[in-house]
Design a protein that fits this description.
Blueprint: E1 5-9, H1 13-25, E2 29-33, H2 36-46, E3 50-54, H3 62-69, E4 79-84, H4 89-97, E5 102-105, H5 110-122, H6 127-130, E6 135-137, E7 141-144, E8 149-152, E9 155-157, H7 161-172, E10 177-179, H8 180-188, H9 198-210, E11 215-218, E12 222-225
Parallel strand pairs: 1-2, 1-3, 3-4, 4-5
Antiparallel strand pairs: 6-7, 7-8, 8-9, 10-12, 11-12
Helix pairs in contact: 1-5, 2-3, 7-8, 7-9
Length: about 230
């Protein structure tokens, strides 16, 4: 069996059954939830590699569920993918702002769905393939790639995957101005379409979470990390 574990979350039984069948056929381990609250409880217990999360659900929608999942430190490395029939920019901004890694638009063919899931998992941050050192240390922080944590003043912080990757990218070359295009390409990939405010939301969250003032905005261009 595939060693990767996937949590499917959707309030429509037919969609859950369809996706579960195709994932299990591709030898994934699959668990399912019918709503956001159930998903949070299962995710804490099962610690999945990837969560496929429907956006439109009663009581607690996908965006709110994603927000809550991203508060759980042990799930910092878990990929979260929204499954949605909605393609409006505001949905993407809300989703990526909540900590999602990507979108899958339904309806989708089984073959394309499995291909997308495999591609996302292959992008799931192998340090050795990127030729990076295990740790990056600056004046304010230590970025530990093996443990996927950021240490500031001796205190460890777990960041959601995209926030961690964004901080790592900026800190990898202090003083360099990374354009928005460079950041999108390195952190989200060229095939992922995100709203213009996505980077701004993630930078704000990093600043707030770490009380960090070394990430500087370069208006009209992008961001840089100042380590002086």
């Amino acid at each position: 069996m595939n060693s990767k574990k996937v949590l499917l979350v959707d309030d429509e039984p037919d969609i859950l059954e369809f996706l579960k069948y195709n994932l299990e056929k591709a030898e994934f381990e699959v668990i399912t939830a019918k709503n956001g609250k159930e998903a949070i409880a299962l995710a804490e217990k099962a610690n999945p590699d990837l969560i496929v999360l429907d956006v439109m659900m009663p009581e607690m929608d996908g965006v709110e569920t994603c927000h809550e999942l991203r508060k759980i430190d042990k799930l910092a490395q878990t990929l979260i993918v929204f499954l949605t029939a909605r393609g409006e920019d505001y949905s993407q901004i809300a989703g990526f702002g909540a900590g999602a890694d990507d979108y899958i638009t339904k309806p989708i063919s089984p073959k394309l769905f499995i291909t997308k899931i495999n591609a996302l998992l292959k992008r799931s941050y192998p340090v050795e393939k990127r030729g990076l050192k295990t740790k990056t240390q600056t004046r304010d922080i230590v970025i530990d790639r093996e443990r996927f944590i950021v240490i500031k003043n001796g205190e460890p912080f777990s960041l959601p995957r995209k926030e961690f990757q964004l901080l790592e990218l900026l800190a990898s070359k202090p003083g360099k101005v990374f354009t928005r295009h460079e950041i999108f390409s390195e952190v989200w990939g060229d095939n992922v379409v995100v709203g213009d405010r996505t980077i701004d939301v993630h930078v704000r969250k990093i600043r707030d979470r770490l009380n960090l003032d070394t990430i500087k905005t370069v208006k009209g261009v992008g961001y840089k990390f100042e380590d002086e």
